Amino acid sequence: MNTMAKVEHTEHHGPAAGLTRWLYTTNHKDIGTLYLWFSFAMFLTGGCMALMIRAELFQPGLQLIQPEFFNQMTTMHGLIMVFGAVMPAFVGLANWMLPMMVGAPDMALPRMNNWSFWILPFAFAMMLSTLFMEGGAPNFGWTFYAPLSTTYAPPSVTYFIFAVHMMGISSIMGAINIIATILNMRAPGMTMMKLPLFVWTWLITAFLLIAVMPVLAGVVTMMLMDIHFGTSFFNAAGGGDPVLFQHIFWFFGHPEVYIMILPAFGIVSEIIPTFARKRLFGYSSMVYATSSIAFLSFIVWVHHMFTVGLPLMGELFFMYATMLIAVPTGVKVFNWVATMFRGSMTFETPMLFAIAFVVLFTIGGFSGLMLAIAPADFQYHDTYFVVAHFHYVLVPGAVFAIMAGVYYWLPKWTGHYYPETMGKVHFWCSFIGVNLTFFPMHFIGLAGMPRRIPDYALQFADFNMVASIGAFIFGFSQLIFLVLIIKTIRGGSPATSEVWDEPHGLEWTIPSPAPYHTFSTPPEVK
Amino acid sequence: MPRGVTEISQSVFDLHMIIFWICVAIGVVVFGVMFWSIFHHRQSRGAQAHHFHENTLVEIIWTLVPFAILIAMAIPATATLVKMYDPSDADIDIQVTGYQWKWRYQYLGEDVDFFSNTTTPKEQINNESEKGENYLLEVDNPLVIPAGKKIRFLITSVDVIHSWWVPAFAVKKDAIPGFINESWTNVPEPGIYRGQCTELCGTYHGFMPIVVDVRPQAEYELWLAEMKNIKAQEIASAKQSISMEELMSKGEAVYKTACAACHQINGEGIPNVFPAIKGSSIATGDISQHIDIVLNGKAGSAMQAFREQLSAVDLAAVITYERNAWGNDSGDKVEPAAIDELKMAAKQ
Amino acid sequence: MKPVKSAQQKNRSMVRTLILSCVLMFGFGFALVPLYDVFCRITGLNGKVLNTGPNAPTGSDKNRTIRVQMIAVNNESMPWEFRALSPMVTVYPGESKQAAYLAHNPTSEKMVAQAIPSVSPSEAAQYLHKVNCFCFDRQPLDSLETREMPLLFVIDPELPTYISTITLSYTLFDITSTKAAESDLLSKSAQPNSTGRNTL
């Protein structure tokens, strides 16, 4: 970071020196950097937990960790990856890029921006501290179904609830900031239908966040009241209903899933046209598809709970609604393919990640479509097939898109090209690792292995071993990424302001590295 | 995915395969076009970028075609789902109750009622001995049902949410405390079918298997009669006195299945989570208090009431064992008859 | 012509709107609780039995009979002996039927229980009218006391014809240590604190 700070010192109104620069900063680029580093740290933390899980599952029998600790690991891994790694990474990218893309000098609410970041480290410190508490960390899965997470929870659940509250507040503030920036701070001439897709998808994501994070806050508040104030929202003894918890949770949970994938769509829609040297095919249909996915996300939540015992009509309605999502998602995939068609393609690291995204995300989409079919879901539900499905959409989906974005914009941020060969090595290691980890999980799931178990029957042994090996390959190849980023920050061949071959967008009109303050006078967009 | 043995599981399997192949076909087309363009339209091959970026007709087509495919998928899916919801009367109703971490089966109207615990030994789990063929998928008392009969399962739970799943029947239903769910099956083929709990239900979620033993009708009836016979014998033997040695050895066996998961084989429990029995004030103190806690459980803790779960003889044996094992040498002996009296008093 | 707002003013009003919508959504989360109950009542989801009281339908339909299965479940660490007196009754739709459960408290302490009803198949829940039920009230039992707990119900003749068996389950929860049970523990008599009151 030092080099970066030095470079920026040459600009007028440069950043303050030392630690206080980061503590007090209201600069969108600084905050973006903080978010990204924080998310990377969380990614590695959650990754270590995943490796612990995979190490235990390498062979049948209990070798390394006991069931109780295993449950804590699955829970913490899920929470950290969702709330600590994927979401902050997208917010980080938004912080860096949105003002530059819409031609604004900064985010609309810079001080709030600082707040929304600095809440996060405290939230996660609180969450991680539960690992060292008496009775252990939360052990009820990231979905924290009542009553396992209320009546039967370890005492640390209260800390977990407050941590979730803090993360929620942080996300909501981030979302408010993003909406205000996009709606109010656009440069003259930047109409809504001229916005880059990354901006569009983030705008829709931010509205989703505003709509559902408060619901999450509501559900954990109800838990808190059930645990400490004697209410019975989810306790049947007092007239409550544990299934109600699942309804409220998934009313938040399903849009949350799209919160983690829509910005990824945006990133990929930026990258593919650049490296195909062709405009994005079907821009307006992309916007409409994203909006309809966001809308549909509110009426499909029950497909997570097909086995709780629903009336026939309920199952049918949610099955049809869920299947409908395949239509706009399909439109997006077709548009990406059509963008590549008859282009003039080159395959730098960001493009490799973007193509892998399209292929692997589509595979995740297919398994999602299969899961939507209610009668078949009775066989898939809560097995490794589900684990395979959501890891396919989240790891080679969201995470690959984030990595693609980082490679794509890294020269713009640091002023240096990253070492291309090293990037490609990182890509291929990750690609092989990811598929080795998650593809066999489809088979294990179809063979009947339930999820969240620390030990399994002998017939699942072979594929579990393959998955564990893959997980270690994927995990350790992220160290390449870390080294590559540090190297690029420290030096490398200087990047031009365009960075790539004639990319579209305002961010490529400013020098690389991007000066500390950009667009103090709004650019004119034709 | 297992094809399964019931009509329902087979139609689910067929449905799964149809959708799978549709997805494969779509995948081949989409990825085919993509890789073809990746191969042919690359700069290194001198491809020039074209400048089209919109085509309303194409976009409408590729919105409508998937829609049509989805409708084609929805039809068989709906048919299967309707078949699953067949409400006609069943031949046998069985209440399935989830406990942390075992299942209880009650044959309604038959006075047959038992618990089904995992029997996989700790040594196998801890890799101290060779793992058996049905590692983690074996139980002491399997659910026995007749072949070719419609069986209705009424599924509920007494603590957290569990889920009862037998893949071969395509039956998976959540067991929710305070609420009752139903599901049914009709298995034409006798055989042994195995499944597991599929909803995270706490520490030993991975260790509550389901085994269903499907027998021909005649054998099922024999089994039912035998179960009733055993129960009658249990009641009779509860009146008799049993030697200390026999109580201790029986008690050790019962302890291993019913108590050791929490209190551990060595009786030391897990600090701060499950209390020790070794040297505890209850196991070395007032005997009636000890009997009370085993029979009636402890409110607000993981300690269940074992009154219904174990027979009088087993209860007497396990309490005797707990009072004399691991240096708790109180010398106390609990007579089955005394426990029986307590149990019967409740039933009057 | 409207005065042009400065960017800051625009931001401020937007923040206000967005925070307001957050608060609304937070409220909506809680509103889902009663909404869900309404939803359950309409669809019978989850077998929740909510219709109570003596407004039962009249006129019985002698053309068919319905089997009503009565199930008793003890929630964990609930040591009471609890069972249906007759596990299976056959009724005509529209006919009032009296049934009973037997409860016994085998412990040395006075305890209070609450029974929670559930019906399967869930579609049938809205057709099962309880005129009177022990589940309407908390049930205190002295040490070693036994009590028959009555239940009077009617099945609506509107019950869809494809349903011929209804399962009615009661899960008994130990609520001795809750606040609501305090008054029951204090009262000396072990009479059920009321009958026929529709409090649930």
From TrEMBL, chain A:
Q: What class of enzyme is it?
A: translocase
The UniProt catalytic activity note for this protein reads: 4 Fe(II)-[cytochrome c] + O2 + 8 H(+)(in) = 4 Fe(III)-[cytochrome c] + 2 H2O + 4 H(+)(out)
| Species of provenance | Neptunomonas qingdaonensis
GO CC annotation terms, alphabetical: plasma membrane; respiratory chain complex IV
Which segments cross the bilayer? Answer: 34-55, 75-96, 117-137, 157-185, 197-224, 244-268, 280-304, 316-338, 350-374, 386-410, 425-445, 465-486
Q: Which UniProt keywords apply?
A: Cell membrane, Copper, Electron transport, Heme, Iron, Membrane, Metal-binding, Respiratory chain, Translocase, Transmembrane, Transmembrane helix, Transport
Please state the protein's primary subcellular location. membrane
* PROSITE patterns assigned to the protein according to its UniProt record, in alphabetical order: COX1 (PS50855), COX1_CUB (PS00077)
The name on file for this protein is Cytochrome c oxidase subunit 1
Query: Which segments constitute the Cytochrome oxidase subunit I profile domain?
Result: 22-526
Q: Where in the cell is it found?
A: Cell membrane; Membrane
An example of a GO molecular function for this protein is: heme binding
Cite the annotated pathway.
Energy metabolism; oxidative phosphorylation
Q: Which domain of life is it from?
A: Bacteria
Q: Which NCBIfam families does the entry link to? A: CtaD_CoxA
Q: Which family does it belong to?
A: Belongs to the heme-copper respiratory oxidase family.
Name the Enzyme Commission number(s) assigned to this protein.
7.1.1.9
Print the organism lineage: Bacteria, Pseudomonadati, Pseudomonadota, Gammaproteobacteria, Oceanospirillales
Q: What does this protein do?
A: Cytochrome c oxidase is the component of the respiratory chain that catalyzes the reduction of oxygen to water. Subunits 1-3 form the functional core of the enzyme complex. CO I is the catalytic subunit of the enzyme. Electrons originating in cytochrome c are transferred via the copper A center of subunit 2 and heme A of subunit 1 to the bimetallic center formed by heme A3 and copper B.
Does this entry carry the keyword Ribonucleoprotein?
no
Q: Which CDD domains match?
A: Cyt_c_Oxidase_I (cd01663)
Which GO biological-process labels does this protein carry? electron transport coupled proton transport; oxidative phosphorylation; respiratory electron transport chain
Per UniProt, what is the membrane topology? Multi-pass membrane protein
UniProtKB/TrEMBL annotation, chain B:
> Carries keyword Nucleotide-binding?
no
Q: Which GO terms describe its biological process?
A: ATP synthesis coupled electron transport
- Main location as per UniProt: membrane
Q: What catalytic reaction does the record list?
A: 4 Fe(II)-[cytochrome c] + O2 + 8 H(+)(in) = 4 Fe(III)-[cytochrome c] + 2 H2O + 4 H(+)(out)
Record keywords, A-Z: Copper, Electron transport, Heme, Iron, Membrane, Metal-binding, Respiratory chain, Translocase, Transmembrane, Transmembrane helix, Transport
Taking every annotated instance into account, which residue ranges of this chain make up the domain Cytochrome c? 246-326
State how the cofactor is bound: Binds a copper A center.
* EC number(s) recorded for this UniProt protein: 7.1.1.9
One GO cellular component assignment for this chain's record is: plasma membrane
Record membrane topology? Multi-pass membrane protein
Q: Which GO terms describe its molecular function?
A: copper ion binding; cytochrome-c oxidase activity; heme binding; oxidoreductase activity
| Alphabetical list of InterPro entries matching this protein | CcO_II, CcO_II-like_C, Copper_CuA, Cupredoxin, Cyt_c-like_dom, Cyt_c-like_dom_sf, Cyt_c_oxidase_su2, Cyt_c_oxidase_su2_TM_dom
Q: Which family does it belong to?
A: Belongs to the cytochrome c oxidase subunit 2 family.
> PANTHER family from the xrefs?
CYTOCHROME C OXIDASE SUBUNIT 2 (PTHR22888:SF9), CYTOCHROME C OXIDASE, SUBUNIT II (PTHR22888)
Record protein name field: Cytochrome c oxidase subunit 2
Organism source for this protein?
Answer: Neptunomonas qingdaonensis
UniProtKB/TrEMBL annotation, chain C:
This protein's GO CC annotations: plasma membrane
Recorded GO terms, molecular function? copper ion binding
Highest rank taxon of the organism? Bacteria
Show the SUPFAM superfamilies listed in the entry.
Ctag/Cox11
Q: State the family it belongs to.
A: Belongs to the COX11/CtaG family.
What does this protein do, in the record's words?
Exerts its effect at some terminal stage of cytochrome c oxidase synthesis, probably by being involved in the insertion of the copper B into subunit I.
What protein name does the entry list? Cytochrome c oxidase assembly protein CtaG
Native species of this protein? Answer: Neptunomonas qingdaonensis
